[in-house]
């Protein structure tokens, strides 16, 4: 089985070989000079009276919790849509549904996957607590990128169909025991969007031996049935996330009770730092993995040149939409603009209180320009890397403008500490 990348966080520990244009940052700063409150009362980043507890409460209740809840709801709807598609696929094989009806049902299932993925891409910017436990185990079960194994998904398609692993009766199939690269949204992308029905393995094992000789209808049904199983598993894991997040003992309450007696956080400021750490998804994952790597700023599958196959979502061509969703989630966390419009306490307000209005304005301008650069790209990110690479380079540069501010002026003004993954970043 070939796996294109190791699971997080190992996948992000790759060596970076960047162009001079992408390496102009000074990374000597690892934390603001007053990290932890300086000489002021704990919880006040720079010694002001800004209410950090209100900031944490608003971001948790108004931004993060609604995102996780919406994802859980959409995951359930996605399962139902895939079940409906599979029913039509079976009806078409029996002659009880037309090809037009089959294609319409498939398109509906694909749209459902896109909607589910879009919501998850917001959650990708909110990785803390249960999504970081055990080296991101739960996160990876939901979305294993950048690790993937199309061969592994094809193998599990027939294992699930047979009810046993590789025709071994002593090894009953259980998706809960399978690796993350055979589950979650990455697996569903392959099952729902790959038009090539032959398996992806360089060598077929016993279970796959006759796969390529089976009829198209049989293979589509096998894939859709496994897709239903994967979608059901996705619902379960989205519920695990909610259960770990909500409730009196959930991580949301842990953040909101920071600094109180018995809290695992010594100060509210430490909880603020946990949330600020999530913003740094914009650096390694978005800027470096989703843009710099396929651009060839890092060593990729093509060496050190533009490599369309190394984009995040090459099968469904969802890469640009994912990046835009990431930026939208970043802006929500930064500004505190969530589902309740009467409370918008965010990091932007904290910056103003800490005499960092210029930093706030620069970051918001950078976000606006990043979105404009991405909107200027025609079609998919894959095609843009071939036809209009300059536009992708501009998008990377604009995102870098934001991350430059994030890694220096932002943490310095708010007396925050860089996450460990960014402290030694030379880009």
From TrEMBL:
InterPro entries named among the record's database cross-references: Imelysin-like, Imelysin-like_IPPA, Imelysin_sf
Keywords: Signal
Residues in Imelysin-like domain copies: 64-406
The keyword Glycosyltransferase appears for this protein: no
Pfam families the record matches: Peptidase_M75
Main location: other
Gene3D superfamilies documented for this protein: M75 peptidase, HXXE motif
Signal peptide: 1-24
Residue stretches of biased makeup (Gly residues): 34-48
Domain of life according to the entry: Bacteria
Compartments where found: Cell envelope
Disordered: region residues: 27-50
Protein name as catalogued: Imelysin family protein
């Amino acid at each position: 089985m070939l796996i294109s990348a190791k699971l997080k966080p190992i996948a992000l520990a790759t060596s970076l070989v960047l162009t001079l244009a992408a390496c102009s940052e000074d990374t000597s700063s690892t934390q603001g000079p007053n990290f932890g409150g300086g000489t002021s009362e704990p919880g006040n980043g720079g010694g002001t009276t800004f209410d950090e507890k209100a900031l944490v409460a608003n971001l948790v209740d108004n931004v993060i919790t609604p995102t996780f809840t919406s994802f859980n709801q959409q995951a359930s709807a996605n399962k139902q849509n895939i079940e409906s598609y599979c029913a039509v696929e079976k009806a078409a094989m029996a002659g009880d549904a037309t090809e037009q009806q089959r294609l319409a049902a498939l398109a509906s299932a694909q749209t459902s996957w896109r909607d589910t993925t879009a919501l998850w891409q917001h959650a990708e910017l909110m990785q803390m607590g249960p999504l970081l436990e055990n080296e991101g185990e739960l996160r990876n079960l939901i979305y294993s990128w950048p690790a993937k194994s199309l061969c592994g998904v094809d193998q599990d398609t027939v294992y699930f169909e047979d009810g046993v692993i590789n025709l071994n009766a002593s090894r009953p199939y259980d998706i809960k025991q399978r690796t993350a690269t055979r589950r979650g949204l990455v697996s569903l992308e392959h099952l729902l969007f790959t038009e090539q029905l032959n398996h992806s393995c360089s060598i077929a094992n016993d279970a796959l031996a006759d796969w390529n000789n089976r009829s198209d209808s049989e293979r589509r049904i096998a894939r859709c049935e496994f897709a239903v199983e994967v979608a059901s598993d996705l619902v379960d894991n989205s519920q695990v996330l909610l259960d770990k997040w909500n409730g009196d003992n959930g991580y949301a309450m842990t953040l909101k009770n920071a600094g109180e007696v018995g809290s695992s956080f010594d100060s509210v400021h430490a909880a603020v730092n946990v949330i600020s750490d999530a913003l740094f998804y914009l650096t390694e994952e978005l800027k470096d993995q989703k843009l710099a790597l396929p651009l060839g700023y890092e060593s990729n599958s093509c060496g050190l040149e533009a490599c369309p196959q190394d984009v995040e979502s090459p099968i469904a061509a969802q890469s640009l939409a994912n990046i835009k969703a990431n930026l939208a989630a970043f802006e929500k966390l930064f500004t505190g603009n969530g589902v309740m419009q009467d409370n918008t306490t965010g990091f932007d307000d904290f910056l103003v209180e800490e005499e960092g209005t210029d930093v706030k304005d620069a970051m918001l301008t950078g976000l606006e320009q990043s979105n404009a650069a991405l909107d200027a790209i025609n079609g998919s990110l894959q095609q843009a890397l071939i036809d209009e690479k300059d536009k992708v380079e501009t998008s990377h540069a604009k995102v870098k403008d934001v991350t430059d501010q994030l890694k220096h002026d932002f943490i310095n003004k708010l007396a925050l500490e860089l996450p460990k993954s960014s402290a030694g970043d030379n880009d």
